Amino acid sequence: MNSLSEFLNASTLQTLYVVILMVFLGIEVISHVPSILHTPLMSGANAIHGVIVLGAIIVLGKVDITNIPAIAVGFTAVLLGTLNVVGGFVVTDRMLEMFKKKTK
Amino acid sequence: MNSLLSSALGLSYLVASVTFILGLKMLSKPDTARRGNLIAAVGMAIAIFATIFLYTNEDGSFLKNRLLVFVALALGTIIGTRAARTVQMTQMPQMVSLFNGMGGACAALIGIIEIYHTQPDEKGKLLAICAGLVIGTISFSGSVIAWGKLTGRFSDKVFPMQQYLNIGLMSTILVMAGFIIFSATISPVMLYMELLLCIVYGILFVLPIGGADMPVVISLLNSFTGVAAACAGFLYGNKAMLTGGILVGSAGTILTILMCKAMNRSLTNVLIGAFSSKTTKQAESEHGDVKEVSLSDAAVMMSYAKKVMIVPGYGLAVAQAQHTCHELEKALEEKGVEVSYAIHPVAGRMPGHMNVLLAEADVAYGKLIEMDEANSQFANTDVVMVLGANDVVNPAAKNNKQSPIYGMPILDVENARSVIVNKRSMNAGYAGISNDLFYQPKTSMLFGDAKTVLQQLVSEIKAN
Prior knowledge:
heterodimer, A: mainly alpha, 2 domains, 5 helices, B: alpha/beta, Rossmann fold, 3 domains, 17 helices, 6 strands, 59% helix
């Protein structure tokens, strides 16, 4: 019981607020999307979850340089995360390039 | 100094979070979509550089190995940009899947390093590590399989007892996660085993699902990776990761459901039911023969029409005939014919496939008409030209309760004055069922490869 109240401290509760609010926001943001935008939207969301690269940067930034395996893993993680972010945004931009209204 | 830095970092994350929300909102409208993408990208860049330069550990030190971080960032940027720029437009879903998988793998690798820096009593941290690893890994291997299916490298594999195997595997994964979190010692070996189990599960999860359903699966895996990112956000108390992750997890799930609705199938049906026409018994109606039309007759029909609607489908993409199609449109317009395109939401292999295909051929955006609007115009249309589309114009969706596509909204081309259907043969479309439209009195078939047929049509029309 005590550890439960320790777990549900101010920081965790604040995190819970953020999570709940983001869930509702996510639902709200996606309402009324025309079907032709489904794929670019999926691609844009894909790029945004590349924010995981921040975790990889932090991990690589804490590893001891002499710990070669960890350096290799951390480096790979940052590389993969960056690919997700950059690739994601560029692909989305390319898809949306096609949607600009052509002036006749 | 320390608190100033952490305030600046927190502020950067707040800005990033706002750009994610704003960007995603703007991505849901055609006018603002491109800007929304850019805004989110800028926010991401701010968060990345703020982390590199402003992040401080508890002892006040900055992050180490920053040169390595920059090298990895630069490498990822160069490779990612090249890959995204050079890929063909019709291979977009594959790329999205691949990048999604990389995000998932990133989450898994973070977990692998962090477990070595965790104490057994840090249960919250262990939960975040485990959840991020499990979800990220499943998303990774699933995304690779989805990529393989869309590039034609892997076929659909259905095997008996599949459901039970998947349920058993998932139970094992969950039990093992429980061990990792609650055991008295930290065991990286258990984590590696969990990693392996999750890789297998991701593969088995996606392997039996049909190739044309991949966009739905990719959207689902997309939201999974979002949740994995949020787990890492929880691990580091990082609001940007938490926001971005949950936003994508939530929005991605809704998008997946929306995509299913456009196909009029439930998500469970997509994930579990293989779209097999072998098991469905349909009332096969009396068919009779199809009427064929000659190229010159078709050319005359279209040249002297007032209004022509083109219905593009997957066949057009396969034949890569979109440019020739545009030629046809121009040739007809020179004759004073009004030409537009009726776009069904799931025509092709992904939502927006036809839009992208036609845009590549410089077809004006305003000529593409959405299904509901198109349906109201068919009664006034003289000629409908169906190019490589099948299920989206199949009246069985309205009339035949036993049909696997029953209930799916379709393009009501039979309301037009005449219909010309271009296919290579009488082979069935993706749903594997016959199409009564082809046998109707107003319909005639123009067999042949789309590109060749369209080229010949254009010459005939110009000669008229």
